[in-house]
């Protein structure tokens, strides 16, 4: 375990990365589960290589799609540089899912019986800088007179505990469904099976970033989930990004006209 305040060293770099920071488009993209990397001092958390490469460590394809969306929408992109195994930045510190000791079929030995000091150290090193950067970015853009539309990007597994998932793209929202409604309407009759609040929804605790950065300020917002078998390769990533960019832009235009 990492019972020390210096979880990240100079060799690791910062917890958060910002790309296209000077973008003037309305969208701010957030990718909480962009990376499967672990800080040097974390080791492997007692997990085999297959687990560290699997969905429990990150959202495969999510960062690639986010980067393409950043280009297409002239959007700022903010993403976490380390695995959610150490801290899941889409969960608040009080949530057991923030530093789980089990994920799907895997026990996570390095997260077992974490003490208060270690939970605090991980929160300070990973969660706080990530969300502080999002808050600062949104505040600076608003002060500059730019629109803020918060879009978080994730991926999910085609099979979960042995049960296949038919949904291909999930459009998720919390109490503010304006942008999600517009995207779902734009998706009607399209090439993908798109569903509302699937395969997860707000009751599963997955809309933390939206609750933190969008809902209190009235920003248009949505969480996107893409089935990861659709975005394992560059061609699929491009197709999905093209599709999502149209849905997002169509929905924003419709919302701003109201």
Contiguous runs where pLDDT drops below 50 for at least 5 residues? none
Number-wise, the strands total 11
CATH topology: Aminopeptidase
Query: Domains counted in the coordinates: how many?
Result: 1
Could you say which overall geometry the principal axes of the C-alpha atoms support? globular
Structural class: alpha/beta
Percent strand equals 15-25%
Counted by DSSP, the helix tally is: 6
Mean pLDDT, nearest integer? 95
Query: Cα distance, first to last residue?
Result: 52 Å
Helix content: 25-40%
Could you give the order of the helices and strands?
A: EEHHEEEHEEEEHEHEH
- Side-by-side strand order of the widest sheet: 1-3-2-6-11-9-10
What's the CATH C level? Alpha Beta
CATH architecture: 3-Layer(aba) Sandwich
Rounded radius of gyration (Å): 18 Å
Question: For the record, what is the CATH homologous superfamily label?
Answer: Zn-dependent exopeptidases
Biggest sheet details: 7 strands, mixed
């Amino acid at each position: 375990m990492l019972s020390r305040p210096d979880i990240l060293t100079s060799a690791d770099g910062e917890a958060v990365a910002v790309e296209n920071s000077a973008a003037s488009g309305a969208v701010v993209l957030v990718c909480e589960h962009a990376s499967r990397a672990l800080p040097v001092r974390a080791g492997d958390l007692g997990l085999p290589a297959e687990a560290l490469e699997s969905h429990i460590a990150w959202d495969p394809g999510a960062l690639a799609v986010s980067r393409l969306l950043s280009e297409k929408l002239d959007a700022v992109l903010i993403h976490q540089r380390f695995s959610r195994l150490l801290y899941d930045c889409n969960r608040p510190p009080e949530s057991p899912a923030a530093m789980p000791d089990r994920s799907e079929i895997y026990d996570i030995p390095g997260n077992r019986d974490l003490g208060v000091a270690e939970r605090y150290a991980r929160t300070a090193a990973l969660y706080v800088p990530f969300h502080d950067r999002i808050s600062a970015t949104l505040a600076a853009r608003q002060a500059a007179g730019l629109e803020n539309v918060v879009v978080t990007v994730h991926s999910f597994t085609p099979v979960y505990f042995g049960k296949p998932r038919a949904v291909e793209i999930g459009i998720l929202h919390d109490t503010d469904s304006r942008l999600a409604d517009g995207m779902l309407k734009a998706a009607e009759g399209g090439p993908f099976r798109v569903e509302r609040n699937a395969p997860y929804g707000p009751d599963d605790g997955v809309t933390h970033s939206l609750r933190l950065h969008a809902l209190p300020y009235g920003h248009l917002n949505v969480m996107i989930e893409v089935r990861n078998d659709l975005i394992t390769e560059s061609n699929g990533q491009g197709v999905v990004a093209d599709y999502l960019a149209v849905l997002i832009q169509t929905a924003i235009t419709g919302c701003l006209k109201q």
